[in-house]
Amino acid sequence: MHSGGASYFHARTTTIEWIVNSADESSAAGRLTDHISVGVLARVISREVVDEVLVETGKKEQRVRRLPAHVVVYFVVSLAVFRDGYEEVMRRLVGGLRLMRVWRDEWTVPSTSALSQARERLGEEPLKMLFERVAVPLAKLSTPGAWLRSWRLMAIDGVNIDVPDTAENLTVFEKARGGTRRPFPQIRSVGLAECGTHAVVAATTGTIRDGERELAGRLLGSVEPDMLITADRGFFSFELWADFMVTGAALLWRVSAHMKLPPEAVLADGSYLSTITSKKNRGSSWRIPLAAVDDPRDASHIPVRVIEYTVATGDGTSSETFRLVTTILDPADATALELAAVYQQRWEYELSLKEIETQLLAPGAGLRSKSPKMVRQEFWGLLLAHYAIRALMVEAADTDGIDPDRLSFQRTLNIVRRQITDQAAFSPLDTRAGDHQSHRRDP
Q: Fewest CB atoms less than 10 Å from the CB: which of 21, 47, 342, 387?
């Protein structure tokens, strides 16, 4: 890790205050649960946004509960940060309060059963909406490795995560059959991530019965025209390609080396132009060219540019052939060499998935929830925790002018864990209304 980035990040996280959630002095002194958050992560997942989502989903309580909905939201997110049991996770969230002499004796850590019931009351939708509200691309124009000219580098990819082998989970989530490494039910997700920051900004959930192409089609609403979307060969189909073209984003997808793409014009950089054809029109003499329609989904033939290359291994031999197709038809807009280099950035999403699967989740473990609704709720909490940590890393890297890839996710996660357990849930500022309002204006 770059020493300057590490010292800055450490300094920033140690000075980040716990969010003060009450503007009223009596409630500040009275209700401990008004002040529980997940420490430094609350800078990204603010209490204000949490409350907005709870109101919109109808989960904001009409009466005071021992476990208010906003506390349960932060509790679910913290389940991704700590792998302890429910009660121990809650103890970590309120750690330090007794030392600060602000622990209310009548407030005790709720039981596992009470926490489970609170999760059930909350449901999936607030966590899902919160992720959709919070998770936006993080890279600035100055962020290294995040752009190709004016395009923001993005990737789509999928992951399967184990869930507990309960009768209720098995009614929705099937087990993979034939050669699976772990015989558990699995939730499948396809997501959209920013390559330069590892931030997952959109995701869909399903089961192993749902194809990755089908799930990828549900991401279209999160794609912006300034993006360059990369994808592995398992995602390509004429229909999905046309769907993504409608968004206005540039596309760069790998396709099978056996796919028929006869050269129509060889370009100066070694790439060539070809045409992809809808299955419905293969072998037919009639065609609807892209230039003749306003919507790519109405075309039967779409022009593409093809880039083919091999990657040399350490012993000087060549690996398998890579064949990419792109909507960027003019080499003046992006050369074949640039596009080949950009496609390798797609692997940054693979690293994001590894961070989620083996660092937030324990290696070889999966989610802990025993019902489908709670599985999906926990999954959104997992993505929120990953996004919040990545956002803090990008902030630190941008300030020091380094590539976010040079910061360690595991080390950052450890810092976040220490900040949650070492600091009290109350801000060190005076919690009287005037000071609180000042704090809200300048977090």
A: 47
